[in-house]
Amino acid sequence: MSTLPSSPRSELIDRIEDGVRDNGGRGQLLHQAIAQHFGLNPTDMKCVDLARSEPRLTAGRLAEITGMSTSATTAVLDRMERAGFIERVRDPEDRRRVIVVSTGRREQEVAEAFLPLKDAMRSLLESYDDAQLELLDGFTARVNQLLREVTREIPGTASPSRTASPSRTATPSGAAPPAGTASPSGAAPPAGAVTRRRVAS
Fold first, then answer.
1. Contact of 99 with 88, CB cutoff 8 Å
2. Confidence label for 193 from pLDDT (cuts 50, 70 and 90)
3. Longest dimension (CA), the chain
4. Relative to the CA of 105, which of 9, 45, 155, 167 has its CA 20 to 30 Å away?
C-alpha cells in the first residue's frame, strides 16, 4: 500500500510538534533535577507558583487549580514547609484560617539554580528580530491556552470556573503548565519561588 508523500509544510509542522514535545520532556528532567536538589519534586516547586495570582488562596482552591486532591495539596505544602520555603500562621482577620507565608529564605537559592538557563535563554532571544519575537510570543501564549483547555478536558480533572494563568514566559526547558509542554518564549520566574503573597492552607 503506497502512501502519499508529505508536503514541506506538513513536514515542518511535524518537526515543530516534535520539538515542542522534546522541549517539554527536557524541561521536566531539568525541573526534576533542580527540585531534587532542594529535597522536593517538580509538583512541589510549581503548584504554588501556578497559583501566585490568586489572592488569599485556600488549599481547596489550589487543589482545584492543579487538579490534585485536597490531601495531596496539603502534602505538597507540608513538604515545602519542611524544606523551608513556607510557614503556616493564623490569619489575623480570621483566626480559624491558617495562612501559608513565604519564609523568603530559599528564593535566592532557586533563582541562582535557574540563572544559567535564564541568561542563555535571554541571549538566544536577543538573536531574533522584533517580528520574530512577536511571533514567538503569540505562539507560546496560544500553546499555554491550548494546554489549559486540553488539561480541563481530561476525565477526572478539576474544571474550575476561574483558573489561574501561569506566566506566559515559561523557560525553554519546560517550565510550563502541568501538561509538561514548555514555551520557547523566555525564562520564567524561578519555579520554586513562592511569592510573599499570603495564601490560606
1. yes
2. very low
3. 73
4. 167
Distance CA 159, CA 196 (A): 27
Grid coordinates given for 39: 529535597
Q: Which residue has the higher pLDDT, 121 or 85?
A: 121
Q: In the structure grid, which three cell numbers stand for residue 107, read together? A: 528564593
In angstroms, the CA 183 to CA 27 distance is 10
DSSP 122: H
Q: pLDDT (tens digit, 9 = 90+) per residue, 37-47?
A: 888 888 888 77
**What is the C-alpha R_g of the chain?**
19
Whether 147 and 176 have beta carbons less than 8 Å apart is answered as: yes
| Side-chain half-sphere CA neighbours of 117 within 13 A | 24
- Decide: 64 and 180 in contact? Cβ < 8 Å: no
Beta-carbon contacts of 84 under 8 Å, excluding residues fewer than 6 positions away, are 103, 105, 106
Contacts of 53 (CB under 8 A, 6+ apart): 164, 165
